[in-house]
Amino acid sequence: MKFTKMQALGNDYIYINAMKEKVKSPSELARKLSDRHFGIGGDGVIFIDFSEKADVKMRMYNSDGTEGKLCGNGIRCVAKYVYDNKIVNNNIINIETYNRIIETKIFQNKDKNIIRADMGSVKEGEKNKKIIIGEKEYSGDYIFLDNAHLVVYAECIEEINLAHCDSYAQFNIEVVSVLSRNEIHMRVKEKGSGETMACGTGACAAAVSCMMRKNVDNCVHVKMPGGNLFIEKKKDHVFMTGEAKTVFEGEIDICLL
Q1: In the chain, where do the E strands start and end?
Q2: Residue 158 and residue 135: Cα distance in Å, rounded?
Q3: Which residues belong to the active site?
Q4: Residues 6+ apart with CB under 8 A from 110
Q5: Rounded CA gap, 46 and 30, in Å?
Q6: Which of 79, 112, 141, 235 is the most buried (most CB within 10 A)?
Q7: Burial level of 193, CB count in 10 A (0-12/13-18/19+)?
Q8: In angstroms, rounded to a whole number, what is the distance separating the alpha carbons of residues 254 and 47?
Q9: Is 52 exposed, middle or buried, given 0-12, 13-18 or 19+ CB atoms closer than 10 A?
Q10: What pTM, to 2 d.p., does this model score?
Q11: SS3 label, residue 201
Q12: CA separation for the pair 44, 165 (Å, rounded)
């Protein structure tokens, strides 16, 4: 089986062209391929397939084999993959996900690939809820962008031990500190993958939560351990802009896993 390893802000996935490669059990394959000791290694696997509604379709599986509904960093990599491999010749690429179709646009900037994705609308859930992590109380907002997010506010994002968040295991957890009117700092623990270098939908959720609280303006840079995303809200749509990069390509005998 041929594969491509790609990353966006350190959020690394294994990309498989399901238009050419046939997969019987994507969940089991995702678990085996994602293993950083015995497989290729990654936060999960993303399959790129034919779509009847858009240019291509993506299905995303976390490293534990569970299927995710949406991956913001992953969708930028999908756009780059289909553009680089001439599956789609336009720089505007529509991608079908679990629940929606997302329009992406590729900007060529010297040797970097900058990609913007229209992530659509974000649903705001319960606000300013009391969140207990360890022995300390925090304030949090529930935000839904297909995936369920819990945005937790802290003076310093390093003060929270994300290993102590098992009570909120059904959510992606974003720990956020507001730095200025146009910049926030964030760490993330993703459901099904654990703490990762970055999360695209998490950055959108965190930015929208901060905008909702009027802590920031409608354009904000989200700083994460893997790098920065630019999040902008226009009316009821959220736009995410950031890099996507190919790491390497390879071939693996899945019968040996």
Answers
A1: 2-8, 11-17, 44-49, 56-62, 67-68, 92-96, 101-109, 112-118, 123-124, 129-133, 136-145, 147-153, 172-180, 183-190, 194-196, 219-224, 227-234, 237-243, 245-251
A2: 15
A3: 71, 199
A4: none
A5: 8
A6: 79
A7: buried
A8: 15
A9: exposed
A10: 0.94
A11: helix
A12: 21
Distance CA 7, CA 44 (A): 11
- Show pLDDT as tens, one digit a residue, over the chain (257 residues): 999 999 999 999 999 999 999 888 999 999 999 999 999 999 999 999 999 999 999 999 999 999 999 999 999 999 999 999 999 999 999 999 999 999 999 987 666 789 999 999 999 999 999 999 988 999 999 999 999 999 999 999 999 999 899 899 999 999 999 999 999 999 999 999 999 999 999 999 999 999 999 999 999 999 999 999 999 999 999 999 999 999 999 999 988 88
Which residues, other chains included, contact 58 with Cβ-Cβ below 8 Å and sequence gap of 6+? 46, 47, 48, 49, 71, 74, 75, 78, 95, 96, 97
Helices and strands (DSSP H and E) totals, the chain = 3, 19
Reported as a single tens digit per residue, the pLDDT across 118-130 is 999 999 999 999 9
User: Which pair of structure tokens corresponds to residue 79?
Assistant: 């756009």
Over its C-alpha atoms, the chain yields an Rg (Å, rounded) of 18
At residue 255, the pLDDT reads: 87
Instruction: State the first-to-last Cα distance of the chain, in angstroms, to the nearest integer.
Output: 12
Q: Which residues pair with 146 in a beta bridge?
A: none
**Contact criterion met (CB below 8 Å) for 103 and 120:** no
Candidates 62, 74, 14; CA nearest to 169 is 62
CB atoms within 10 A of CB 226: 20
